[in-house]
Specification:
Radius of gyration: 21 Å
CATH architecture of the largest domain: 3-Layer(aba) Sandwich
Number of strands: 10
CATH superfamily of the largest domain: Periplasmic binding protein-like II
Mean pLDDT: 92
Number of domains: 2
Shape: globular
Distance between the termini: 56 Å
CATH class of the largest domain: Alpha Beta
Order of helices and strands: HEHEHEHEEHEHEHEHEEHHH
């Protein structure tokens, strides 16, 4: 019996380092998307600042990746605040498909999105899109369809006013645009895929949204966590040729509830304290505000993240 107990204890001790060394799985959308860039930046920061090994695991879109985090096949992932809320509660784009094992790690920064056309297009406003072809559907990124619907609603339009060309994800939507099969598509402002398309078509242009209260209310009715803000031209922002009003919404990083608390605390610490280093490769991290990381969007926070915020005196906000 003593030999057996010794063998079991030794086995447990030997297994513990292996479990600790298991690489963290970071779920993202395909290469070229903003979530892939976020994942790559976090992976590098975790290695450099915490010697934590990780691997970026791209999938066809957040609609596929989020349930993989819920099931524990992937440890952490990125999506917007509305998508996280709907996924956890099983409503909207995740209707009757709740993901109760999701836990928020942090609110990161606003994501700026818009609809863009070729620069030489006669289309000057969202209202001018009536009757035009548009990438739509986004079967593996259903939340993108909601962002498109919200921006159309800002101009009093619905998808019924346009001619949709069905695509599975954002990358395919831009590919259809580059190939000339749609007049307009969407992508996050500052995305690498936008720069690629800008070079391929000889220039593209984001459309200005209507900042009036009624138009913003119509947008928020479709996408309740969205808000309107201005974006000005910058070398890294292909397609922003003048200061425009466009749709913003917060992006989040989340985890499976069963990821060890100490591991999530480390991840939270790295995000908060290495944001400037991550901003060197992903400009959006410059907009991260540590005091906003503990913002409650009605999805529980992971115990490890809460431990970090309490240690640093960061209060939860609603």
């Amino acid at each position: 019996m003593r030999k057996l107990l010794f063998a079991l204890t030794l086995s447990a001790l030997l297994a513990a380092p292996a479990a600790t060394a298991q690489p963290l799985g970071i779920g993202t959308s395909p290469q070229g998307t903003v979530t892939y860039a976020f994942g790559a930046a976090l992976a590098k920061a975790l290695q450099d600042a915490a010697s934590m090994q990780s691997r970026v695991q791209p999938s066809s879109g957040t609609g596929v990746m989020v349930p993989l985090v819920n099931s524990g096949e992937i440890d952490v992932g990125f999506c917007n605040s509305l998508e996280l809320y709907e996924a956890f509660h099983g409503i909207g784009t995740f209707d009757k498909r709740p993901n109760p094992k999701l836990r928020t790690i942090a609110i990161l920064f606003p994501l700026r999105v818009g609809l863009f056309v070729r620069n030489d297009s006669p289309i000057k406003s969202i209202k001018d899109l009536k009757g035009k072809t548009i990438a739509y559907g986004y079967t593996s990124q259903e939340i993108i369809k909601t962002t498109v619907d919200a921006m159309l609603a800002n101009a009093g339009l619905t998808i019924a006013d346009l001619k949709p060309v069905l695509v599975p994800n954002l990358i395919r939507g831009v590919d259809e645009f580059t190939a000339g099969r749609v007049d307009v598509t969407t992508f996050a402002i500052g995305g690498a895929k936008v720069s690629e398309a800008d070079a391929a078509v000889g220039g593209l242009r984001y459309l200005d949204l209507d900042p009036s209260p009624d138009a913003v209310a119509a947008m928020k009715k479709v996408f309740r966590t969205s808000y309107m803000a201005k974006v000005s031209p910058a070398p890294s922002l292909a397609g922003v040729r003048e200061t425009i009003n466009t749709m913003h919404y917060d992006y989040t990083v989340f985890a499976n509830a069963d990821v060890p608390a100490e591991r999530i605390k480390t991840i939270t610490k790295v995000i908060a304290e290495q944001k400037d280093a991550m901003a060197l490769s992903v400009a959006q991290f410059r907009a991260l505000r540590v005091e906003r990381m503990f913002t409650n969007y009605d999805v529980p926070f992971h115990d490890g993240a809460i431990a970090y915020y309490r240690e640093k005196g960061i209060s939860e906000t609603k």
